[in-house]
């Protein structure tokens, strides 16, 4: 019988904090439901005091989800805690996650304070949170660089104040696995009452060691791993859920397991990547496009003879179904609905009709529709709610001539047109859109990717547009890359022109 490791998913809080990954409430509910189906124990749904949007998302996720604990982040500030408790009022299993920086860097430079004062504030925050909910998790921010003796004092004090879970974040991704494992062991050996709480790891990947640190922390006694889908998160990201889950599945000798239904991993990975506009690197462990692709002849031969000669995980175990039905223009609505379901998206009624219409249009241009296309179609259907839409686009371009674009926009039902030239078709289209929108805006980043292979493929465009010093992210996908670029530009504009 394995020891149970609780999976705490923070894709919707630490992951969503990344510039460009912001989701609206509807999208967050979609991800939360997929996380519930995946089998996570805790969903960190947001930081309610940080914005009305975050507050609302915690409220709506609390209503939409049944089994997992719903957690809301706060600082060690009474108003944060009050607001978090209010946002959690519909949660069946609410948890407040409060805490404060405990490393000398945080104490001196962030708080201009002393160790004793920080300890007092930590205890005060936990005691205050206990007035609202039973389940209170405490985080010692930058625990990775906190002196172990002082960390143990803080942890012991907050346990006495009623904390049920103690989170030990390696906020800066600094620790070595041996060091992080020793930190967890030090707390187990030196803190009175530690056996009554769950210890959590929360590792960042700045040195590429987030998974190694998490695994070592768990081997040394932590029983909650804080993770994100695809390892998304600030800077180099957080520990990735799929890596931790599959490490313990693959190393049964460690005697630790989770409640995760691993066959849903690939679906949710693609869903999060698509909704958050965060491509997964092809060689990413478990969920990268090449994670199970064998190109060398020796490997292919070995795998054909016996899969285990070169593969430690059966791709089917993480939801890669090589025999899955390929969707084509002849596929029906039911096949599309099923594929969306496998990818964690539930559509029905008019929403499914719209997605199916878009599917048929794409299938006319592209012989086979893959999972990325299906996710794009689901995203396009959400985009139909945008206030500004591309009505038409005509571009003439070639070698030795100026590119000229004429563009039509539909802004809340009103039609506008403009024409402009540029040093290429994308530049011309963007200049024409700028004539209509008349705001100061600058394209800062522009990335075009083909989703698959072949010249008939769909191109994805990621774009960052700066307006009033703030970056806004736009995304689109289209078989015409000039159209995809114009649409991505308009998608970004929709985020600041309300
Ligand atoms: O990395 C970190 O320290 C965090 C805490 C707020 C838990 O995300
Ligand atoms: Zn973090």
Helices, strands, pairings?
Layout: E1 3-4, E2 6-9, H1 11-15, H2 25-38, E3 42-46, H3 52-64, E4 69-73, H4 78-87, E5 94-101, H5 104-110, H6 115-130, E6 136-141, H7 148-160, E7 165-170, H8 177-190, E8 198-203, H9 210-219, E9 224-227, H10 241-250, E10 256-257, H11 265-275, H12 297-305, H13 333-342, H14 349-365, H15 371-383, E11 388-396, E12 403-411, E13 414-422, H16 425-437, E14 442-450, E15 459-467, E16 470-478, H17 481-494
Parallel strand pairs: 1-10, 2-3, 2-9, 3-4, 4-5, 5-6, 6-7, 7-8, 8-9
Antiparallel strand pairs: 11-12, 12-13, 14-15, 15-16
Helix pairs in contact: 2-3, 2-11, 3-4, 6-7, 7-8, 8-9, 11-15, 14-15, 16-17
Bound molecules: 3-methyl-2-oxobutanoic acid and zinc ion.
Organism: Duncaniella muris
InterPro entries: 2-IPM_HCS-like (IPR050073), 2-isopropylmalate_synth_dimer (IPR013709), AIPM/Hcit_synth_CS (IPR002034), Aldolase_TIM (IPR013785), LeuA/HCS_post-cat (IPR054691), LeuA_allosteric_dom_sf (IPR036230), LeuA_bact_synth (IPR005671), PYR_CT (IPR000891)
Keywords: Amino-acid biosynthesis, Branched-chain amino acid biosynthesis, Cytoplasm, Leucine biosynthesis, Manganese, Metal-binding, Transferase
Give a written overview of the molecule.
By secondary structure, this protein is an alpha/beta fold. The chain has four domains: 6-275, Aldolase class I (TIM Barrel, Alpha-Beta Barrel), CATH 3.20.20; 292-320, no CATH class; 324-385; 386-493, Alpha-isopropylmalate synthase LeuA, regulatory domain (Double Stranded RNA Binding Domain, 2-Layer Sandwich), CATH 3.30.160.270. 40% of the residues lie in helices and 20% in strands. The protein contains 17 helices and 16 strands. The chain has helices at 11-15, 25-38, 52-64, 78-87, 104-110, 115-130, 148-160, 177-190, 210-219, 241-250, 265-275, 297-305, 333-342, 349-365, 371-383, 425-437, 481-494, and strands at 3-4, 6-9, 42-46, 69-73, 94-101, 136-141, 165-170, 198-203, 224-227, 256-257, 388-396, 403-411, 414-422, 442-450, 459-467, 470-478. The strands form four sheets. An eight-stranded parallel beta barrel has the order 2-3-4-5-6-7-8-9, surrounded by seven helices. It has a three-stranded antiparallel β-sheet with strand order 11-12-13. A three-stranded antiparallel β-sheet has the order 14-15-16. β14 and β15 form a beta hairpin. The radius of gyration is 24 Å and the shape is globular. It binds 3-methyl-2-oxobutanoic acid and zinc ion. The site of zinc ion has 5 residues, from loops.
């Amino acid at each position: 019988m394995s020891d149970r490791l609780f999976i705490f998913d923070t894709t919707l809080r630490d992951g969503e904090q990344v510039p460009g990954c912001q989701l609206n409430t509807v999208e967050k509910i979609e991800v939360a439901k997929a996380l519930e189906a995946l089998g996570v124990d805790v969903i960190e749904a947001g930081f309610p005091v940080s914005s009305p949007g975050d507050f609302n998302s915690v409220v709506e996720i609390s209503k939409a989800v049944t089994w997992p604990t719903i957690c809301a982040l706060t600082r060690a500030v009474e108003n944060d805690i009050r607001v978090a408790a209010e946002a959690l009022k519909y949660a069946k299993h609410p948890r407040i996650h409060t805490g404060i920086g405990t490393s000398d860097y945080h104490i001196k430079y962030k708080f201009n304070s002393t160790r004793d004062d920080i300890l007092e504030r930590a205890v005060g925050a936990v005691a205050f949170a206990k007035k609202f909910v039973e389940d209170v998790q405490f985080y010692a921010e930058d625990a990775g660089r906190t002196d172990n003796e002082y960390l143990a004092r803080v942890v012991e004090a907050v346990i006495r104040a009623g904390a049920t879970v103690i989170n030990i974040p390696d906020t800066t991704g600094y620790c070595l696995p041996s060091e992080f494992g020793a930190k967890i062991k030090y707390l187990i050996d030196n803190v009175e009452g530690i056996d009554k709480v769950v210890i959590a790891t929360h590792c960042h990947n700045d040195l590429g060691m987030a998974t190694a640190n998490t695994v070592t922390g768990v081997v040394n006694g932590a029983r909650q791993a804080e993770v994100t889908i695809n390892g998304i998160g600030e800077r180099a990201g957080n520990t990735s859920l799929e890596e931790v889950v599959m490490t313990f599945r693959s190393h049964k000798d460690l005697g630790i397991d989770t409640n995760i239904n691993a066959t849903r991993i690939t679906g949710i990975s693609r869903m999060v990547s698509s909704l958050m506009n965060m491509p997964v690197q092809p060689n990413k462990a478990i969920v990268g496009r090449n994670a199970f692709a064998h190109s060398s002849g020796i490997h292919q031969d070995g795998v054909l003879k016996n899969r285990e000669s070169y593969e430690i995980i059966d791709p089917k175990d993480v939801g890669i179904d090589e025999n899955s039905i390929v969707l084509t223009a002849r596929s029906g609505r039911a096949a599309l609905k099923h594929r969306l379901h496998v990818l964690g998206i539930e559509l029905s009624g008019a929403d499914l009709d719209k997605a199916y219409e878009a599917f048929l249009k794409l299938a006319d241009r592209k012989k086979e529709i893959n999972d990325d296309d299906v996710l794009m179609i689901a995203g396009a259907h959400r985009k139909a709610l945008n206030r500004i839409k591309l009505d038409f686009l005509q571009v003439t371009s070639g070698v030795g001539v100026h590119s000229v674009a004429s563009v039509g926009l539909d802004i809340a039902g009103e039609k506008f047109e403009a024409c402009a030239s540029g040093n290429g078709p994308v530049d011309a289209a963007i200049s024409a859109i700028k004539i209509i929108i008349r705001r100061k805006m600058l394209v800062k980043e522009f990335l075009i990717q083909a989703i698959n292979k072949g010249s008939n493929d769909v191109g994805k465009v990621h774009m960052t547009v700066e307006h009033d010093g703030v970056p806004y992210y736009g995304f689109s996908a289209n078989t015409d890359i000039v159209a995809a670029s114009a649409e991505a530009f308009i998608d970004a504009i929709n985020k600041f022109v309300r």
